[in-house]
């Protein structure tokens, strides 16, 4: 009981004094201190309560994408992409799904095929900056490069993942360094992988036909038999890709390079196909108090069962995709951090609603 027992005589003398045990009158709403943050569990619970008021029928299954089973084409892979990456109909491009409501959310996708030999290239064009809300400090960003199967969708932020960032940076395993030039709307980035060296694989880039030089050198003994796959990561922008399906490239490429689309089928490495029906998919629901280790268990289980390619639907995963990555780690104050957690929980609600459409295995970490 949030109150104190007072004698009749004391009541007369202390009418002007607070009656609550923490210095407040009963019935008066306590103003929350800005430093008094809510945790992720609070916002997850609030979103869950809000969305439980009315149950709508589950969304229809996602329509089969063109060319999904066609081994002769190289397109973006909607099975391994972020759930919130909206691929174009022909799957030679895409954009973030929730750019209006969650402008800070990165979304990424890889191609269906990778390569292990030769001198291979592809092109990526930032075709449009998406509008942001008035007063928003978020700016469109784009990152393009190469990664291996099972690497994170956040290009350049784990091992064997190599990206060229629109801020004039290159990034590998979370390490950012200055490289080339900044780029943005209407710019075309050429991405080149040279496997013909004896010991090294060299990755280089160009901007609007101008060569920028080698960005990464990978020792073949470390890379092993892993194939490198074209990879894009965008925030508030639309990207168009040329894997070689176009009659003419955006800009001329060096004579000794070929587009990945032109590589013979037997020389390309295909990522696994998705399950054919949702009945073949698996959903795990995490149950436990906040802080009991659900997220850690989900991450460990995902690593131990990589062939199932679980998508973890959780606030921590969304938070990781919302934070602006760069050479300087941005420190958020309590109010900004609280708002970010709130947005992440709202975004998670949206992802949980669209997840039943996708033929994937999920872990709901909520």
TrEMBL record:
Gene3D superfamilies per record: 2.60.120.920, P-loop containing nucleotide triphosphate hydrolases
Keywords carried by this UniProt record: Methylation, Nucleus, Phosphoprotein
Ranges of Basic and acidic residues composition bias in the record: 14-50
Stretch forming the signal peptide: none
Coiled coil: none
SMART domains: SPRY
Keyword Phosphoprotein carried by entry: yes
UniProt xrefs under Pfam families: AAA_33 (PF13671), SPRY (PF00622)
Xref: PANTHER family: HETEROGENEOUS NUCLEAR RIBONUCLEOPROTEIN U FAMILY MEMBER, HETEROGENEOUS NUCLEAR RIBONUCLEOPROTEIN U-LIKE PROTEIN 2
Record protein name field: HNRL2 protein
Gene source species: Herpetotheres cachinnans
